[in-house]
User: Fold these one by one.
Assistant:
Number 1:
Amino acid sequence: MTESNAVLETLVERLAPSGDDPVSERTWQFSERMAAIYQQQMKHFDEDAEARQWHRLYSTEHMPPPDDTANMAEVAAQMAFYFPTHVFKFQKAAIQQLLEWQSRQGQINPYPLGAPSITLVDIGAGVGTASLAVIDLLAAWTDVVGEFGYKQLGISVHPIVVEPDTNKQGPRGQMLNSLARLVDRHTISIEPVTEVFAPYPEPECIEQILRAIPGGSLVMCCISNFLSSVPGDGEQALAPIGAQAASHATRTTEHSAAMSANQAAIIAEKAVRCAEASRQLLTDPAV
Ligand SMILES: C[S@@+](CC[C@H](N)C(=O)[O-])C[C@H]1O[C@@H](n2cnc3c(N)ncnc32)[C@H](O)[C@@H]1O
């Protein structure tokens, strides 16, 4: 096995261990970082009189729709029901893209996607699920290449989150801050988040996104469970920000992605609402 393959295999094994039985399907699991962040956020909700009402209001048969929220109890319920599956679904789409990119490189590039500076444009961000999932994946990548003896290189990540629902801003900020503390600042530094509250794709929103993107950064549009609610086909939906994934988005299934030299779009659609469907999606041994 080449070293490059060994690195990739270690990465996949860390995110989705194959278990003792080689023929059984892989099960995706939270990294320790992501588990800590999720648990800490659910604890914050339980310490808040309004947010803790989610236990009383919702059950597995009666879930809140994963959209706009009226109060913090709905945000907490959405976190409880959707966050775990949405993180895995997005990481799975992102890692496929990372592996495809790396397999074209010949040798390991210690920078994931070859980029020392990455801007994440998370549209329909909610509590920041896609941004958290990608940063956690980048951290797993740097951990693994470090273990294989490659010099740790600093990557800066600048999240631009587009989300009109202001109830989600607090939990999203807390989780991104927690993640910033848990990743090694010398290898990944999370820059101050740009918040865009104008709804996508209104001109004001597009203008704010484009203004916040720094020159020379790899732009990754991370769109998780949102694109299908934008009118028009995927191509029209992504055209305002010039995302290269436009042609792929038109045939978006569970996940779809495209990448060019300086821009990437990773899209995870088809909301996974029921436990059975989630399990099927998460154990699909596609990687
Ligand atoms: C299904 S949730 C997905 C949240 C998160 N990306 C995830 O995968 O868990 C869709 C999100 O899009 C937000 N949203 C609705 N209309 C929007 C718009 N026009 N522009 C940006 N976000 C919007 C909703 O408030 C909601 O948080």
Number 2:
Amino acid sequence: MPTPSEPWRPRPAVEADIDAIRRLEWACFHATISSLSYRTELADPRHAILVLEDAEGLVGFATANVVLDEGHITNIAVDARCRQRGAGRALLTALVERLKQLGATAAYLEVRTKNEPAQHLYASFGFYVLGKRRAYYWDPPDDAIVMRLDWAAPDEPA
Ligand SMILES: CC(C)(COP(=O)(O)OP(=O)(O)OC[C@H]1O[C@@H](n2cnc3c(N)ncnc32)[C@H](O)[C@@H]1OP(=O)(O)O)[C@@H](O)C(=O)NCCC(=O)NCCS
């Protein structure tokens, strides 16, 4: 676990992280995409996968992709033993920086209506609610809240 003087430092994922990412994804969501899908995303420059580690191993990951100038945050998760210590915010901050480098000027995401911790994280980061997608999730069924964050392009005034 990092200390205040030694903050969380997300880094880009590599192929050797895939099994640990999938274990954490399963622990958080009882579902995971395949190893092949992760390998495909790692090889695609329009995708970003970041991970966070502590002394015991991988404790968080975040994924996104860019289409034209829009980023789509597809997942973010922190090991239950490390939550509410700034890891989620550190991952989201680094992921948005990566989306900027990839040419995005905005990011959107979907979040379960019942997932209050994640909604708090996104709202406190500046994401605003765009609307709802009905019956977006299953197992258990839930609607999705769609949220968006805009930032200025590098050549635009802030
Ligand atoms: C959502 C998640 C990634 C947040 O990670 P985290 O490391 O706990 O988040 P942080 O400690 O960086 O907290 C950042 C902000 O999130 C909010 N937050 C985090 N946990 C919260 C909780 N249990 N209740 C309310 N707000 C919470 C707070 O606004 C916090 O801001 P603050 O530090 O100013 O109070 C984590 O709860 C998680 O992995 N959940 C399971 C997977 C998941 O649901 N992912 C989201 C999919 S859309």
